[in-house]
Amino acid sequence: MNFVLDGIIEAFRLLATGDHEVARITLLSLKISGTATLISTVIGVTSGTAVALTRFPGRRIVMALINTGMGLPPVVVGLFVTILIWRSGPLGSFGLLYTPAAMVIAQTCIALPIITGITVAAIQRLPDKLAIQILALGATRRQMVWLLMKEARLPLLTAIMAGFGGVISEIGASMMVGGNIKGYTRVLTTATVMETGKGNFALAIALSIILLILAFAVNYLLTIIQQRGSK
Amino acid sequence: MNPPLIEIRDLTVLRGGRSALNIPYLALREGSILSVIGPNGAGKSTLLLAIMRLIKPSSGEIRFRGQALPAAGLHRYRRRIGLVLQDPLLFTSTVRANVAAGLAIRGESREKTDRAVQRAMELLGISHLAERRASTLSGGEAQRVSIARAIAPRPELLLMDEPFSSLDAPSRNALIEDLERIARVEGISLIFATHDREEAIRLSDEILVLNNGRIAQRGTPHEVTRYPADEFVAGFMGTDTILTGTVTASSGGIMTVSVNGNAVEAVGEAPPGAAATLCVHPDSITLTPAPSATSARNVFSGRISKVVPLGLVRKIYLDCGFTLVASVTNRSCEELGITEGMEIAAAFKATAVHVIKITRQAD
């Protein structure tokens, strides 16, 4: 079991010495998952709010699709995105396969339903008459939607945290559409799998610890903001 | 002559195919307080939301200061009106930010907002709560903040939808007292929906009684209480004694109505044989241990069938061939030694009998 201890020591050594390759993998992980979360937040919060506040035919089906999407297996997402961007696929001409952009697309597909679904629930959980009260204060419809989103800001932060947590830790889709190319599409999860496969447990543990620290740091930051808002 | 502040003509609101509101005409003059009273489902909230144009009427017209409401840009119209709902629905921020919300939405300057917020908080006695989070307030404090938020932008009309119904009695009384003062001092025009007749009588210049979406009666608190238009209004405004009988004689402005074989005299004229519906307000009935010399034309002996305590007064149900319900103070009850089953006399004047309806019998 020495390799576990070795791994932990190695992790802190890598962190302390600022290992170039680890730093690059970590930054790329943050960049790809951060971009995917940002895109999903913009689209998910907007569309989730719209679904929560409007009534239209087929709304229940849309809600069921969103809820199903919240549990979408990353490998399935990876498979469909791969098919889409495969050289002979519908978006093959863009040459996206095995690029960071492809990983952002795949991770957006994973985070989007999570953020949308939690947003719908968050807006629906607001008091029924709050929208009426806001309009009665003289708000335009746009101001009303903004104020409702502001009122639901704590669960919306939870949505963002869940979305980020979902993509920073996924492996299947990133591996399939990114290809784990060193210095280009290698992220913490794909690198951890690769090092484990090579029997290089110390480095794999080190990368896992960095992944955990990263996930913790981002969520801790969002939790501080969330708790400050709840007081 | 200035047009009414708000004027409604032939307003109907349909819900699920049935009429939820049907108001042929209603006008409110500036500076007056109108209570809209009625049971649950009477259309009180619907009327307020329709005035605010938060629901679209099926037909009819609403005019504000003589102007028809705009088809677009309704937020500009709504900014002239304030609305307070039963639930305070405060934002998760400080009291100050909540009171400032309406002004922030209007994009008012910081200086103007600060002044208006301070004034509204002072009027409602909540200045000391300014920096408190809304989530930490009691129900009474939260409703004060909600009212301050509504009046801070100085609306020309304030609508209130049962704002006190979820409050405990002391909070409700204190808030009603303050609202009464603020409305009078500030000259606020107010439409106030409630199902509590005491609140309505206390606060209003006029009362509008709604039943099933229709106006049952409109009048001053005295008119609605003493001269109800129908049995529903009588019952809702606290008159439990509603008698039906047949006119047996009528002369000199006094008619005699036979109610279960008892002659009840009332002011009015009707041909003998006509069916009459009468009511007597509980405050107009005097109880005495035995029939005594009195100027009242109606004196009946009977047995007390029920005593219902209602705080400072008790309702006494008296069976004298028909049921009479009198309202007697606790002190008078003790002096008279009132208990259930006791024999007692009740007296009321012919002028205290309000004739609700006379129906000529078919020959």
Overview of the structural elements:
The complex is a heterodimer of chains A (231) and B (363). Chain A has a single domain, classed as MetI-like (MetI-like fold). The mean pLDDT of chain A is 92. The termini of chain A are far apart. Chain A is mainly α and 231 residues long. In chain A, helix 2 runs parallel beside helix 5, helix 5 packs antiparallel against helix 9 and helix 6 crosses helix 7. Chain B is of the alpha+beta class. Chain B contains 10 helices and 20 strands. Chain B has a 6-stranded mixed β-sheet, sandwiched between helices. In chain B, a hairpin with a 2-residue loop joins strand 4 and strand 5. The chains are: A mainly alpha (231), B alpha+beta (363). At the A-B interface, helix 6 and helix 7 of A face helix 2, strand 6 and helix 3 of B.
In short:
Chain A is an all-alpha fold and 231 residues long.
Walk me through the topology.
The complex is a heterodimer of chains A (231) and B (363).
Chain A: H1 2-17, H2 20-53, H3 59-69, H4 74-85, H5 100-124, H6 130-136, H7 141-151, H8 153-168, H9 172-178, H10 188-197, H11 201-230
Chain B: E1 6-15, E2 18-28, E3 33-37, H1 44-51, E4 59-64, E5 67-68, H2 74-78, E6 81-84, H3 95-105, H4 110-124, H5 139-151, E7 157-161, H6 169-186, E8 189-194, H7 197-203, E9 206-211, E10 214-219, H8 221-226, H9 231-236, E11 241-251, E12 254-259, E13 262-267, E14 275-280, E15 286-288, E16 298-310, E17 313-319, E18 323-329, H10 330-336, E19 343-348, E20 353-359
Parallel strand pairs in B: 3-8, 3-9, 6-7, 7-8
Antiparallel strand pairs in B: 1-2, 1-4, 4-5, 9-10, 11-12, 11-14, 12-13, 14-20, 15-19, 16-17, 16-19, 17-18
